[in-house]
Amino acid sequence: MHFFVEVILPLSLAKTFTYSVSEAEYHFIQQGMRISVPFGKTKIYTALAVATHQNSPTLYDAKEIHEILDHTPIVTPIQITHWQWIASYYMCAIGDVYRGAMPSGLLLESETIISKKTTSSTDTSTLSDEEFLIYEALELQSSLKVQDIIAILNKKNIFPTIQKLLDKNIISLQEETQETYKPKLVRYIRLHPQYNSDQGLSALLEVLKKANKQKELVLNYFQLQASYKKPISVKKLIETAQSSSAVVKTLIDKAVFEDYLIQEDRVDFSKNLTQKDLVLSPAQQKGLEEIKTEFAQKEVCLLHGVTASGKTEVYIQLIEEYLAMHKQVLFLLPEIALTTQLVSRLSAYFGNRIAVFHSKYNNNERVEVWRNVLQNSDKAQIVIGARSALFLPFSNLGFIIVDEEHEQTFKQTDPAPRYHARDTAIVLANFHKAKVLLGSATPSIETYFNATTTKFGLVEIKERYGKVSMPEIALVDLKDKYFRKKMTGHFSDTLIEAITAATTLGEQVILFQNRRGYAPLLECMTCGHVPQCQQCDVSLTYHKHKNQLRCHYCGYAIAKPTHCHACSSIELTTKGFGTEQIQQELEQLFPDSKTGRMDQDTTRGKFGFEKIINSFKNKEIDILVGTQMLAKGLDFDNVSLVGIMNADNMLYHPDFRAFERSFQMMTQVSGRSGRSQKQGKVIIQTYNPDHNTIQQVTVNNYAGMYKEQLYDRQIYKYPPYFRIIKITLKHRDYEKLKQGAMWLYQVMHTNLNIPVLGPEEPGINRIRNEYIRTIIVKIPQSSSLGGVKKIMQKMLQSFDAVAPYRAIKVSVNVDFY
Ligand code: ADP
Ligand code: ZN
Ligand code: ZN
Which residue range(s) make up the domain with 157? Predict the structure, then answer.
């Protein structure tokens, strides 16, 4: 008799693999347990069991597994089904989904690089012999590969040992950035058992007879124990007794006390709990009732509420109802940066029942949320996260909110799975029989289409909370202003006056500029040469603060040249402008105001964003300049003016969504103005004040924008009328890529009876030294999406079988955004 387990490997492989197991293992293994397995000659991976069976594989000899890593499944059957759906819909390997879904702390493999945490001091007496050996090796060497550890411990089953060291917060995996360290273990103290009796006490006092400080500490301990009735942490004891850790240590050495560690949850929101009573406005209440009515019939509902209509409060009410039914709630946000504000708003109602899950959290934190969700723990009744939170092991999911559903960051671009979190959430909800609420002031065309064609429910809130008026939007014609010399740098006189007026009243200002850096280009005034990235087909961006030219695609950077590399002229000038330059001009124009900047350059690091938001909220910043990060649902109550520095570069993006996005971006940024009492003001600087999209923004005409765009989408064959699959091909050899892309295009063009476009050279045709070509396939509603994908898969397989093209990298992006 032979016994086998079928596993998913965390690799870009479409198939499951068969490994051989013993009879006892065969009976023990359940779907969703992790198993470490050998792969290839030397590799080891953490695989996921999907089934056990007794059929030998026909194409290869099944290898033996190394070991079973879990006692109980840590992935649920629904997850596996959901992941299979993702793989099939988004045309990627199930292994890609598995790899993308799991925190890397749960996916150790032979290539994993491990290093010691520099921030923690370790009590080596808590380590097992094997753990200590690894610890010691890491004292001598800054990092080790799993393979090295196999050699050190002289055995192959080492993942559990590494896992323990990870859990003890002693080591970390290399790919994670080691930022602000939050202790996971709290050290507690208790009396040594030998003194836990009446005779013990007198013995103890005898021991401490001559040591006053120690005696005092022990007496304090007794007092605290009597009054506090909770485990006593070392910290608490030292504080209460006003003693020192040295005294504690002596007492531990004397075996009067013993210390022990308790895991404390890293994310503690209990402090915020103030249990407010939420009273909805009539408009909110009506919206809430309508959503519930829609949910009686439909699985998905769109809440289309203008900016500052108080959508969050409606969400809170609904969440409360699902929690009362003991359901788990998933709250998806487009941007991790937004979690801070949301968490502090939600934790006022739900306290410690909130867990946060996103990529800036380190492995330990993510693993912990994973486990809490799996156990349906109280600590994770509400999960707030960016798109990857969809992959958590929910067992009892009742409700999913996708806030700011129109945001393109919900679509993952690289690596596979290239899924759209909104659409994937709807499918997930279906498996759980859960409801989905999509929220936005500027819904995506696709979603609004679904909501008006009765697929989704539609609920609208048309007024701001507190009946505050929508901001007044004024347009400034840049052509005219430059002509009449009314510009100072990039500021029109109108904008300067408005900023002066607002800041004089102590009100705050937000300025929106879609580009970071100082200026996009450095240009030679003699020959017109613009420095380019060596590896990408893009010009370098000038960053004044660092005096550097940087590539925003690959990170390549050089010091700002003193002369032109083409003609040696020293007359160099900057062209265009970014946030950094706006901030500098501001400092000159408004020397008395404090300015801040929010873009990718200033928000690096785990708390970078929080810091800026907090100082703006606390009014330490008067004028905040930022990129589209500003457009995403932030709530500041003292902002009375929003300025859009230049509306045009958004409008003329070569992309069928450019007008839709420009409308969303401008409406959202405008929505930050005048949110609480006074009507706010918005000034949009543009060369095209008569442009339809800008006019639609000005009068808050979402319906007009929708109608116009929908018409274009139909004429030009785009979503929602056509589904789009984009195929990207990359190779270092320009000619080979050109031939390969043509080959694939022709095969698709001949065999698919639908529009196939390309192969196109994109605007930026080389990144990191790889040339790029794209092919677009447009699938009309009348064709079967599944059928088309099946044929495409076959063609991609035959492409891969053509020897000269095998090295060309091909990626497929379904529902390309
Ligand atoms: P939206 O997400 O629709 O843009 P928010 O939910 O951020 O709007 O609400 C805008 C502001 O109004 C927030 O500061 C919020 O606290 C406040 N607000 C909304 N509804 C209520 C309510 N029912 N009671 C008290 N304050 C509310
Ligand atoms: Zn030159
Ligand atoms: Zn580059």
Answer: 113-169
